[in-house]
Each structure stands twice: as structure tokens, then as C-alpha cells.
Amino acid sequence: xxxxxxxxxxxxxxxxxxxxxxxxxxxxxxxxxxxxxxxxxxxxxxxxxxxxxxxxxxxxxxxxxxxxxxxxxxxxxxxxxxxxxxxxxxxxxxxxxxxxxxxxxxxxxxxxxxxxxxxxxxxxxxxxxxxxxxxxxxxxxxxxxxxxxxxxxxxxxxxxxxxxxxxxxxxxxxxxxxxxxxxxxxxxxxxxxxxxxxxxxxxxxxxxxxxxxxxxxxxxxxxxxxxxxxxxxxxxxxxxxxxxxxxxxxxxxxxxxxxxxxxxxxxxxxxxxxxxxxxxxxxxxxxxxxxxxxxxxxxxxxxxxxxxxxxxxx
Length: 314
Description:
By secondary structure, the protein is mostly beta strands. It has a single domain (5-303), classed as Neuraminidase (6 Propeller). It has strands at residues 5-7, 12-15, 21-26, 32-36, 41-45, 51-56, 61-66, 72-76, 83-86, 89-92, 104-108, 115-119, 121-122, 125-126, 130-135, 140-145, 149-150, 155-156, 159-165, 171-178, 181-186, 192-197, 202-210, 213-214, 225-228, 234-240, 246-251, 255-259, 265-270, 276-282, 288-293, 298-303. The model has no long low-confidence stretch (mean pLDDT 96).
């Protein structure tokens, strides 16, 4: 059995003062494009730490990815969370139905800032709170719908994993039901889809048969779960590195947990922010991890022990 390592990496602050940053994308020019969920906007962070607003995004922008046409595709939860302050921390608060504009997947032109709604429903069912997405390199992408937990009505959504084409022409469910799915990613060869459920603390996996088609679920199959974390560790977004390790941002313990392809929890990279939400890889050699520390409004970087995975269209 591989020995677990609790790491205290050296973090370099790239930018601060962000309004709950998520969905970082490392760009070829050295900048990082990310969303600010409580901005709400799409922002470019330049290498010197200065920021530029690419587009205002009403609702609640979450995950982001570069599409086949070079535009940014993003999941918008529609305002599923209201901002809540706890001392110096900015946290995602409870649901406010009056402020929710409906979930959607959007395309943002990086040059003009034009925002286009691509998908707001699937088979007549409204999207509730799309959270994160991953491009598959075949003209489409998988995305999670985190759903809404409404304390006022004591209800919680069962939601799905979807596959959609980037040209806006088709969307369908590939997994149902799921419980608050969040981060999503593909193995280096594209043969396995991974997604994290926030409150259950589990990373699930399903084989990809063809683009947009997953292997059928097998009842009571233990291999459906790659890994489950012990204790109260919520899971947020994830990235897969070049060796196939699933690197998932963990909440409460504040860091990134690296899970080997065979499901062993090998490393925890502590960040000091209890709501660490996202990781992506950049730099010329893809050995730099960019991590969003959302409750303290920072983007940081740190050397990564393995080479990152170059995502489709980047």
C-alpha cells in the first residue's frame, strides 16, 4: 500500500481580492482565466497579478473550459448560492429563490466579451445549477449539475451528468441520478470519466464507450466509486494530471487531495483555505498548479510533483 503524505507546499500568491474565484484555465500567454462566482464575472489574471474583466456574467458562474473554437465555455449555477461573510471569509450561503435566474451553460467570446446561452434545459427539464465541465476533444463536453438545496422548503435536487455539443445543437443525460456532483474530468487517454460528489465525499468513475456514451451502470458494482474520503471532507472541482491521478479540491481540510488511478489517497496538498475549490495545470512544462482559494479570494500557484495533463483545445 502506498503511504499517504500530508504536504505543506510552498504557495505563491498570483492574485488577491477576487470574489470567490473558481474554474481557473491556464492560458498559453501565461495568464489565467477564471470566474468570480460572486463577481459575478469572467476575469483574466495577468502574470503580474493584475486583473481584467472579460465579461459580466449574471447568476453564478462556476466551472470554465476552452472550447474547440477558442471561446470560454462555462457552467452558470444561476445564483444557487448567496454570498455570506464570516469574519474575513466569503462563503457560499443558502439558496434564495428570488435571486435564481435558472441554470445554464454559456459561451463567452474572449475578444468581444459576448455571452451566449447554449443550454438551459435537457429534454424539457430545466438545468438547475450547472457546476463544472470538461471538453472531450471530439466537439463536445461533459458537465455536472450540482442542483439546489433549499433549506426554506427542505428540498434537495437529484441531478445528472450531461453530455453536450459545443455548437449548441445537442444535449443528453449520461448519468442519473447523482447527489450534488461537482468536479469532472477525463483520464489522459479519454477512456474514463471521473466526477466528484460534494457532500458524499466520493469520486465516481465510468468508462467512456464513445464520445457522449458511457458504459452502462452495473448495480452494486463497487468499482463505480474510485475513492471515498474519510471524515467530513467535502469535494469540489478536480483536474486529472498527466499520470492519471485525480486531483480533487477538498473543503474543510483545505487543500487538494491526489488520488492514484487505482483509487489510493496518496497526497494532500494543504492550502490553508477551508474552501479550496479548483486546480488546473499550466506553465511551459505543465508542472505548475494553479489553485483557487475561494473563501479568501486568492489565486495561488505551486510546483506540482507530476506533469499536468494538457486539456483539449488548450
